[in-house]
Amino acid sequence: xxxxxxxxxxxxxxxxxxxxxxxxxxxxxxxxxxxxxxxxxxxxxxxxxxxxxxxxxxxxxxxxxxxxxxxxxxxxxxxxxxxxxxxxxxxxxxxxxxxxxxxxxxxxxxxxxxxxxxxxxxxxxxxxxxxxxxxxxxxxxxxxxxxxxxxxxxxxxxxxxxxxxxxxxxxxxxxxxxxxxxxxxxxxxxxxxxxxxxxxxxxxxxxxxxxxxxxxxxxxxxxxxxxxxxxxxxxxxxxxxxxxxxxxxxxxxxxxxxxxxxxxxxxxxxxxxxxxxxxxxxxxxxxxxxxxxxxxxxxxxxxxxxxxxxxxxxxxxxxxxxxxxxxxxxxxxxxxxxxxxxxxxxxxxxxxxxxxxxxxxxxxxxxxxxxxxxxxxxxxxxxxxxxxxxxxxxxxxxxxxxxxxxxxxxxxxxxxxxxxxxxxxxxxxxxxxxxxxxxxxxxxxxxxxxxxxxxxxxxxxxxxxxxxxxxxxxxxxxxxxxxxxxxxxxxxxxxxxxxxxxxxxxxxxxxxxxxxxxxxxxxxxxxxxxxxxxxxxxxxxxxxxxxxxxxxxxxxxxxxxxxxxxxxxxxxxxxxxxxxxxxxxxxxxxxxxxxxxxxxxxxxxxxxxxxxxxxxxxxxxxxxxx
Length: 626
Description:
The protein is α/β, with parallel strands linked by helices. The chain is built from 18 helices and 18 strands.
């Protein structure tokens, strides 16, 4: 494999001097302490799915025979013949995760389901942000619990619009409860790389078998709070053609950490708990063992949050009782006593998998007690009636959508904030206990949905609902419904479950006012991936757990919301063709639909009238208040 591709993908064969005593090459289960102990309980569960963005693997390798791996077609990419060595990288990763028991090389989680998107074929495909974003989105939509992105992009410059595609894809995966992992990179210094530098990603650095950090493994402030170190050297994996080869690098380390995370998810399932990928992420971060200066080359920051401690993370997630109970009828057949398990991240014992967008409050509280007193869950939610000074607090808001919609979406949010003076009891803010800073807003307006001539949700979405509310206020009509205009979360708190907490607070405010329900016109943030698909069909797309694929709709469904109808004209933008060319950089010279990136539907172009119109549908969701 060419050197450029190796560096970009975090690959092996790093030219670093070896210590005087070279450690013996290890199989994956021997490289990560605690794997064999967890294998007593599970070798991975088929309900747990690992998605991998990688080079194409050699699926004929004997270690992968019998594995449950599905190749996800990277349909958006041109046909590219993989570079020499690309298959070597993909085969190695696939075997470390899914190598079958009894084969030449057993992987860490061989019974888990695999989804491999072979999108990293050459230097161009590795470093293409659009390719990266598409791959993450495809695996998220296909039902992955974990997405391993096996590439390292150079850190983006401020304002890099193309990298925003990757950022948005990672945020949406996190909002859907998916754990994203990525290598810290092999650049010998404080050089955070993308997507590992994103706060939602679990970044992984590499250490030797003896615990000493590799000098090539990147570290720095960009990984603060969301990175761990894992074994990354002299670990055996499959090679194309049926062989076995040892490799090293942060790519090896992230495979180890991803396999460990999959085992922890499987252990949760085996213990009768709901699999919680983001809860597993928190457990890995909070139980990571700090480094001594000696093994960290006098800079403990090289270890990121610390070194992977799989047994400690397992104890935190399922309790000591499950792990000490070895009532098995063979490897992977443990039947732990549910009474002995500490139900850290889920109060339910339902067998149906149910991802949580973040660790539950009980989970975060217990984790904070384990050593992190500044957990992001340490927030307080109040109404603007209680604290009116919070209305004008600034929260960085980057509305999702194409450039020509940014101003419109931002203006709508500012209008919603101004309404807080009229309806302060129906606006809420989340503040951090540590410094009082505002990290989230939610805003609603009361209206009479049962008033004469209504009884239905308007086709104009939130704007028409707002007009009803203002009309009712002027006429003195008694409201029966709270219309949710929107919520915004500080970037650092996205993916933590705060949006659900704000939604719950708004529902409580509505219930206290004697209202019957909460309704909201939702802009599905992932619909841009399927712009030509009718919104009514898209809104009904679900993951295997029965919840919506779209992350925004998923938040509402998890909070008890019911999708009822489509608002076909929730947002309308019209203008002359010269304006559209300026806005989009597209020609707009032929009649018919024009697909503009990040739009939820096509723009309709009419050259004869020198006009183009964008009509965006949203989805109505109703929350009954008991």
